[in-house]
Amino acid sequence: MEGVTDLTSPDDQTADAPADTPEPRLVSAPAEALRPVVEDERRLRELVASVADGHGPIAIDAERASGFRYGQKAYLVQLRRAGAGTWLVDPVMCPDLSELQDVVGDVEWVLHAATQDLPCLADLGLHPTRLFDTELGSRLAGRPRVGLAAAMEHYLGITLAKEHSAQDWSTRPLPEPWLVYAALDVEVLVDLRDAVDEDLRSQGKSGWAAEEFEALTHFRGPAPKVDPWRKTSGLHKVRTRRGLAVVRELWETRDRLAQDRDCSPGRVLGDAAIVELALPSGADGTRRTPRAVQRNPQVWLAAVDRAMLLPEDELPAYHLPSDGPPPQRAWADKDPVAAARLGAVKELVAGLSASVAVPAENLLTPDTLRRVVWAPPVDESAQGFREILLDLGARPWQAGLVSPLLAEAASDHPYPPRV
């Protein structure tokens, strides 16, 4: 699926607001007293009944323990619906929320940066059929800052107390101030949805947003990576296949240990130590033992030994084969016309981005743009490009806007007649 966008911008990305902008009102506590966290079947049934009696969209958020625990599962789920109020659920104690799904499955969900939360909510049995993403909606509306705090400030004139955003949400019991923080994330999320929706309508972008939100209902998380160990930070320093084998073995050992211990892999062994173990460091080719592995050296040195004993034909390749175009830096040599087209269409897309106030990467993902320029359709009309964009997963609104630009770039930079 192309372009289920997950490009959360930091709130400090742009300049400060003009001096005459009113100071946002600080909201530091929910409107109603917090209910006890839902931790058992009885309370879960109360939640389900309450939400069923509510009305309108339901605001949903989830807190994970990124950097502390293995994986991205939810450790707290927050829900708020008119007529039902705010509920906080402990998914460790209530890991099956399928009863709630029966109630909210047909209700519009309101989330901020939905791609962050949908996978862990799906693990609990929660799947939307309709949703509104206030982060993506703000992006399509042309807002330069789209984090939750910035969106709240712009559209609602409020700011939320956000001092607990990087906590270890697997902590039990969760401190009261953390629960207040979590409840605030859904306190006015439906109000934000309405304000963003009004902005989109005023700009004539409601149809675009509807296509994006419908695509998000099918999002189940990023596709599994081939050779995820190749994402090790600093891997570019490793210049031999044997060294790559060491990185792979260390990465896989670390991942198994992290999963067994239910902790972040970086807390088991950092990427820097993995790369250091993979690099010969002495004049005689010996390897240093980084300080990070000295607490349990036998595990890591055994992994290095396994990699060093591999036969040549089992060593990893320098690069994975790709089904996409070559690196852009090679285009000028491999296909000068394609390189010229790409430069031209990027300029055209940048102009379109400015005119419609939508980021270029939301008009079409960079990967899709490169693929269609590198391997264009036989029919290089706007219709021909539109069809190939749809085949690659672009939404109709994206294909409709970008295909004429691709046709224009192709017309200005035609291939010579081929014999």
Describe this protein's structure.
The chain is of the alpha/beta class. 46% of the residues lie in helices and 9% in strands. The strands form two sheets. The chain has a five-stranded mixed β-sheet with strand order 4-3-2-5-6, with helices on both faces. The protein has a two-stranded parallel ribbon with strand order 1-7. β5, α3 and β6 form a beta-alpha-beta unit. Residues 1-17 have low confidence and may be disordered.
Please provide a brief summary of the model:
With 419 residues, the protein is α/β, with parallel strands linked by helices. It has 18 helices and 7 strands.
Write the layout of secondary structure elements.
Blueprint: E1 25-27, H1 41-53, E2 55-64, E3 74-82, E4 85-89, H2 98-104, E5 108-111, H3 114-123, E6 130-133, H4 134-140, H5 148-156, E7 158-160, H6 176-187, H7 189-202, H8 206-216, H9 241-261, H10 265-268, H11 271-278, H12 297-308, H13 331-334, H14 336-356, H15 360-363, H16 366-374, H17 382-391, H18 396-412
Parallel strand pairs: 1-7, 2-5, 5-6
Antiparallel strand pairs: 2-3, 3-4
Helix pairs in contact: 1-2, 4-7, 5-7, 9-11, 9-12, 14-16, 14-18, 17-18
